[in-house]
Amino acid sequence: MVRDSDEIRWGIIGCGNVTELKSGPAFNKVAGSKLVAVMRRNREKLLDYAARHRVPKTYTSADDLINDPEIDAVYVATPPGSHREYALKIASANKHCCLEKPMALDFSECEDIVAAFAGREAQLFVAYYRRSLPRFNQVKEWIDSGRIGAIRHINWSYARAPSAADLSPEYDWRTDPAVSGGGHFVDLACHGLDLFIHLAGDITEAKGIAVNQQDLYNAEDAVSACWAFDSGATGAGFWNFAASDYSDEVVIYGSRGSIRFSVFADKPLVLDAGDDSETVAIAHPENIQYFHIDNMVKHLNGEGRHPVSAAEGGKASRVMDQILAGFR
Q1: Predicted confidence band of residue 309 (pLDDT cuts 50, 70, 90)
Q2: Amino acid 310: pLDDT
Q3: What are 208-213's contacts with CB under 8 Å, separation 24+?
Q4: Across the beta sheet with 234-240, what order do the strands follow?
Q5: pLDDT-derived band of residue 3, with 50, 70 and 90 as boundaries?
Q6: Mean pLDDT score, 1-30
Q7: What's the pLDDT at 1?
Q8: Tens digit of pLDDT for each residue in 258-274?
């Protein structure tokens, strides 16, 4: 792949809500990175986005953006149902690719995508940006330095009330399994499961029970699961989207202590190891994908290694497939 610019020049396919603050602006804030083009089928919304974010090029065709010779890398910010199609085209164009999470509809599609990039100069990333966030880097540093000893078990409890979109008769792709791969469990739990793999190693086996308690949509809205890490540690979690109160707590139990934190809520990290205890508050950046994007650029420039490249991105999808096997 020949580059005629010192910057990594990005194009975005699907400039929806996730790109407004979480990711889009960071492509111009990170050193050595520039957002040069965006694509959306709705031309009015496309031009509005480009004007507000000062993006010079616009496309209503994904193929035209992918084949633009001035674009080095493509960020696919569309629902999972389209990821495989776009990723294969980006691989054929030999351009770098970042896919929003989850990587694809299921693990089989993830494998297809990884195979398409195998042996190419073009690099593949997945936007599991929590692996790059300072707050979770702190958790990993505590674990890797032995502050809680060997990990014995990870438990995650997540609950929330149905959202306005859940209660609305309007269509929501997030709860359409044909487009999202499942419901809110697939959309949200993948973040935590990927993070646990990053912190504790690969998950070798997972089992689960998934049900629909509210009958508001066709996807699961309550899930309980357990799993095993290759280290011998165990894990368990429940995710309920029909509850009355909000809850988001992870506890990592070790042989010498424990660590508590939230996957989504902005709460302090708590290390409890007797005399060696600590509580740390680390705020998220304004654009939560900033460090993820910075790590991609450094990876592409040979200045570092991104924590979610190639096959890493599909591991959470494999686990979710196992958990939801009885529901699908």
Answers
A1: confident
A2: 87
A3: 208/322, 208/323, 208/324, 208/325, 208/326, 209/326, 210/185, 210/323, 210/324, 210/326, 210/327, 211/327, 213/240, 213/242
A4: 203-211, 222-229, 234-240, 151-159, 247-254, 258-261, 269-272, 278-280
A5: low
A6: 90
A7: 53
A8: 999 999 999 999 999 99
Q: Burial code of 141-158, b = ≥16 C-beta within 10 A, e = fewer? A: ebbeeebbeebebbbbeb
Provide the 3-class DSSP secondary structure of residue 164.
helix
For 195-221, the pLDDT digits (tens) are 999 999 999 999 999 999 999 999 999
Q: HSE (CB half, 13 Å, CA atoms) of 259? A: 28
Residues sharing a CB contact under 8 Å with residue 275, sequence separation 6 or more, in sequence order = none
In degrees to the nearest 10, what's the CA dihedral of 112, 117, 118, 122?
Answer: -170
Question: ∠297-298-304 over CA atoms, to 5°?
Answer: 145
Cβ atoms of 39 and 68 closer than 8 Å: no
Query: Of 324, 321, 289, 247, which is closest to residue 125 (Cα–Cα)?
Result: 289
Closest CA to 103 of 289, 287, 307, 311: 311
Q: Which residues of 125-135 are buried (b: 16+ CB within 10 A; e: fewer)?
A: bbbbbbbbbeb
**What residues pair up with 13 in beta bridges, in sequence order?**
39, 76
Residue ranges of alpha helices (H) inside the chain are 17-20, 26-29, 43-53, 62-66, 83-92, 107-117, 134-144, 164-167, 177-180, 184, 190-200, 290-300, 315-323
Q: Which residues sit opposite 157 in a β-bridge?
A: 238, 249
Q: What is the 3-state secondary structure (H, E, C) of 265-303?
A: CCCCEEEECCCCCEEECCCCCCCCCHHHHHHHHHHHCCC
pTM of the model: 0.96
